[in-house]
């Protein structure tokens, strides 16, 4: 699936993140841990920001000048209603040129939707867009090897890809990052996250 198709799929299910059953604390503790590693707090970016703005609020409260990016037009429309003072960009991270250097970038439950063939390019682009000492947190499928699949668990068909745990770690080290934290925080599910510092 192409990223624009992912965006259209998410356009159909935005209400999931407004339901009483959605856990607004999802990912917050992990982001607090990542923020603690930061040396400077200028610009921050939330890739795949969605509609809730929970990470945008957390980063703003921590002193960052934060912006959001998403491939779903409807998600962004709802995000803008909630946070009219924030800059939001409708774009595909695979082709979008990041305009600034950032002290913090998050891609929580988002870049696992990009094509497997683009994973290395996108991770490289993100790390290149970090200032020295900048922090990158992202979640991924902690598989043993790289691969991709689709499923309809949320309703519409959605694509997922992963370089695998060792693949992401190796790439980040190759790009000059230090791994500050890696956790399978929903074990035995494969949901995994990394905090890396440039």
Automatic annotation (TrEMBL):
A GO molecular-function descriptor: methyltransferase activity
Q: Which residues cross the membrane?
A: none
Q: Name one Pfam family in it.
A: Methyltransf_25
Q: Which positions fall inside the Methyltransferase domain? A: 45-134
Is the keyword Ribonucleoprotein in the record?
Answer: no
Q: Which GO terms describe its biological process?
A: methylation
Protein name in the entry: Type 11 methyltransferase
Origin species, per record, is Pseudoalteromonas phenolica
